[in-house]
Structures are given as structure tokens and as C-alpha cells.
């Protein structure tokens, strides 16, 4: 686990450096009148700080007495990751024909995937709240263009 965390910290630090480098080419502005480079620069700096925290924790874990080497994830864990990636791919394909509310409802319901009879209603309610609430917030109130789907056109 520590080795993967170290690699992740290094990748995040490289991404943060690229973000900061690109943001430096934009006008920065000030705190009262921020320019287009203001938020990306601070986001890159925050990401770099978090990457350094992760790297520090990883180095401490590796140097700790009795530190163990990470083992590969069991086969079942990889199947879950593949299922998640497949569901996200199907979600991206379904967004245009089905629209945001229906696609998001199905994705949340699939990700929640209740295992007991009582959890079916809570999964259904969570999917309904997540899809309906985010559509109301972003599409209706904030005016973000989201695919409405066949029922909201």
C-alpha cells in the first residue's frame, strides 16, 4: 500500500506542477478581483501540498519498524473496479439518449446495489434524491446545460 501511495503522491505532485505552470501563464489578478489564473494556481498549490502530505506519510510508513510489503488486491476487488469502470462507460453512453436525470438515477441505483430487501427502498430513494436534486441544482437553478432526456424536453 505504501508503494502505491508513494507513486500516487509523485503523480499528484507532477499534475500539480503542470497546473501551476499553466496557471502562471494566465493573469492572476488579486483576491478582490481574481483573474483567470487565480483559482487554478491555488488549486495546483493545494494539490501540491496534499501530495507532499501523502508523500511524507508514505515515507514514515515505509521507515516504520515492521513495515509490511503490499500484496496484490484479491481477484474480487479487481472485478469491482472493472464493474465500476464499465458502469461509468455505460453512463457516458446513456447520457445523450436517456438524459442526465434517468442516467444518473440508474448509475446511483447500480452503484448502491442493495443486497437486502429493506435496502431496496433506501437505494431507490438515494438514487431519486441524487439524480433529481443535482438536476434541479445544476440545470434549473444554476443554468448548467445538462441533457434533459426524453421526458423533460
Attribute tags:
single chain; 153 residues; mainly alpha; 5 helices; 73% helix
Mean pLDDT: 87
- Strand fraction: under 5%
Helix content: over 70%
Structural class: mainly alpha
- When the domains are counted, the total is 2
- The quaternary state of the protein chains shown equals single chain
The number of helical elements comes to 5
Q: What is the general shape? A: flat
Give the H and E element order.
HHHHH
Low-pLDDT runs: none
Radius of gyration: 21 Å
End-to-end CA span: 48 Å
Number of strands: 0
Give the gist of this structure.
The protein is mostly helical and 153 residues long. The chain has five helices and no strands.
Amino acid at each position: 500500500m505504501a508503494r502505491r501511495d508513494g507513486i500516487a503522491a509523485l503523480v499528484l505532485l507532477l499534475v500539480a506542477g503542470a497546473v501551476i505552470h499553466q496557471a502562471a501563464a494566465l493573469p492572476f489578478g488579486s483576491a478582490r478581483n481574481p483573474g483567470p489564473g487565480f483559482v487554478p494556481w491555488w488549486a495546483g498549490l493545494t494539490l501540491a501540498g496534499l501530495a507532499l502530505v501523502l508523500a511524507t506519510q508514505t515515507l514514515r510508513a515505509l521507515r516504520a519498524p515492521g513495515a509490511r510489503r503490499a500484496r496484490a488486491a484479491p481477484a474480487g476487488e479487481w472485478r469491482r473496479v472493472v464493474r465500476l469502470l464499465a458502469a461509468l462507460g455505460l453512463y457516458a453512453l446513456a447520457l445523450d439518449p436517456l438524459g442526465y436525470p434517468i442516467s444518473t438515477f440508474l448509475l446511483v441505483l447500480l452503484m448502491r446495489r442493495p443486497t437486502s430487501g429493506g435496502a431496496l427502498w433506501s437505494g431507490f430513494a438515494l438514487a431519486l434524491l441524487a439524480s433529481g436534486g443535482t438536476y434541479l441544482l445544476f440545470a434549473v437553478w444554476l443554468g448548467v446545460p445538462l441533457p434533459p432526456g426524453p421526458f423533460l424536453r
